[in-house]
Each structure stands twice: as C-alpha cells, then as structure tokens.
Specification:
This is Cell division protein FtsX. The protein has 305 residues and is an alpha+beta fold. Helix content is 70%, strand content 8%. The protein is elongated and about 100 Å long.
C-alpha cells in the first residue's frame, strides 16, 4: 500500500510540474551526453596514441653535398661511409632501439616523388639532393631524447627528428577540445542541478497541505520525502536514457554509417562499440543518483519534516 502511494505521488508530481520536469530531462540528457562524449574522447585519444606512437620513428638525417655548403651542422662535409658504419654500430648497441632501417638517397627520392609528385618543387629535385637517413624504431617512443643526445652534433649528422613531436601537437589539440567539452558539461550539470532543486521546491510547495497532514498523522520524514526524491530520480533516469541513446546514435551514424568516418579516415583507429557500451552503466547510475541526492539536500531546506 505504501509503495502504491509513493508511486501515485510520483506520477502526480511529474504531471503537475510537466514543464520543469521536461527541462530537467533535457538538461540532464545533454549534460550526461557531453559527459559520456568526453569520456569517449579520452578513450579515443588514448587509442590513437597507442596506435600511432607504436608506428612513429626517430629519423637521423645524414649530411649530403648540398648540406655541406649551406648547413652549419654539416660544415665538415658530407657523411662518409665510415661515419655511416659507426652510426649504425652505435645504434645497434643501444638498448632503447628496437629496429634500424637505412634509407638511401635514391629511396628517399622515390618516396618523395610518390608523396609529392604533383608539387612544383618535385620536378627540380634530383636524387643527390636528397638525404640519406636511418629510421629508428624505439622500444619506448618516449625515449627519443636518448637518441637526440647521442647523435645531435655528430660528424655527418644533419639533424635528428622525432615524428612523435608532430603527433603531440595533434593530441594537444584533441585534449584541448576534450577539456572544452568537459567545461560545457560542467556548466550543463550545474544548470541541471539548479533545475532539479527548483523543481523539487515547487513540487514541495504545491503539496504543502498534503505533507502537513502526513506529518500530523505521524508519517516518517523519509516517507514524506520519498515521492519528491523519486520524482527527481525518475526524471534524471529518463534524461540518462536519452543521453545513452545519443551516444549510441552518434557512434552508429558518425563512425559506422551515415558519415562513415571509419571508411573515410582509415588512418584513424576508432574506438569500438565495447568502449561505448562500458560507459552506459556509469551514465545511467549518474543520472539516477545525481538528481536523487540533489533532491534530498534540497528537501532538507525547503521541506520541514
């Protein structure tokens, strides 16, 4: 009987404050969709880091004849065979190195033509203007500085470049976008909490006569508060369900179908469905507990029991 009464009061409260309940549902849905989206963005950045950092190389570019005339690092002339052999031997001895690949001038020229063959500069280049290089695969991509310290400024070495540095700029941009989404999410959560508190306050005020009678007949404080807390929890849960739906639809239409980014951006290793599905229980739990707790603390102030 008591459970039936609480459920009937929940329905009454939701119908009486339909407009404010709708506002709570929408704000909770949007804020939790952003919350889930920011979590998925973090997963995506981590996945991309693991995927790309595993593929990046450190490149040691060797001096050629053109560099000897224009680059201070190559003032002693083009790299010699002895210098190349010594660089290779030193790389093989380093524990941080996983693999070393040599690229000749002809190979560098061929790769350049494949990638930038339409460039006006490509027609004026010759193989002897290209640089020989050693492409080094590290066991840990974070250990680039070990290679840079060992080979920068060495005779025959024009420069040491880390491809990871290029990717870091991309990941900084993605992380910045993620923090911006979190800031908007935090703002939306504050708005949602304020709406929940106001909705509970209006609901309690509109039913002050009923709660007064319940107090007179000896109803417990929790029994009086339960319908208001449950109203907020139900509205939040509806919003959380919508947020889960938004995330599922976004994953389906943006990556798999619709825009089909997975087919168009084959160089990006997108997160799978498992990453999305594991976030849904957290979103639903948050959508249930956050409004319930907000209503509980609001009632302590606005509903004297």
């Amino acid at each position: 009987m008591r459970a039936q009464f609480v459920l009937s009061e929940i329905g009454v409260g939701l119908r009486r404050n339909l407009t404010m309940t709708f506002a709570v549902v929408v704000s909770v849905a949007l804020s939790l969709a952003l919350f889930g989206g920011s979590l998925l963005m973090s997963d995506q950045v981590s996945t991309m880091k693991g995927y790309w950092y595993d593929k990046v190389n450190v490149s040691i570019f060797l001096c050629n004849k053109s560099d000897a005339e224009s680059d201070p690092n190559c003032a002693k002339g083009a790299v010699t065979d002895d210098q190349k052999s010594q660089i290779k031997a030193d790389l093989d001895k380093m524990g941080v190195v996983q693999a070393v690949t040599y690229e000749s001038q002809d190979q560098a020229y061929k790769h350049y033509k494949e990638q930038f063959g339409d460039s006006p500069l490509a027609s004026s280049l010759t193989p002897d203007q290209m640089q020989e290089s050693y492409r080094i695969k590290l066991k840990d991509p974070e250990k680039y500085q070990v290679i840079a310290t060992a080979f920068n400024g060495r005779d025959g070495v024009q420069s040491v470049q880390d491809q990871k540095g290029i990717l870091d700029n991309l990941f900084k941009l993605l992380n910045g976008m993620n923090w911006a989404a979190r800031a908007v999410m935090a703002l939306m959560l504050v708005v949602a909490l304020m709406l929940i508190v106001n909705t509970v306050r209006v609901s309690a005020f509109s039913r002050r006569r009923e709660t007064g009678i319940m107090r007179l007949v000896g109803a417990s404080g929790f029994y009086i508060q339960a319908p208001f807390i449950m109203e907020a929890a139900v509205a939040g849960l509806i919003g959380g369900t919508l947020a889960c739906g938004f995330l599922l639809l976004a994953r389906y239409f943006l990556i798999d179908h619709g825009l089909a980014l997975a087919d168009q951006l084959t160089l990006i290793n997108f997160i799978g469905w498992d990453a999305v599905l594991t976030k849904l229980p957290l979103i639903l739990a948050t959508s249930l507990l956050m409004p319930a707790l907000a209503a509980f603390f609001a009632l302590r102030k606005y509903l004297k029991v």
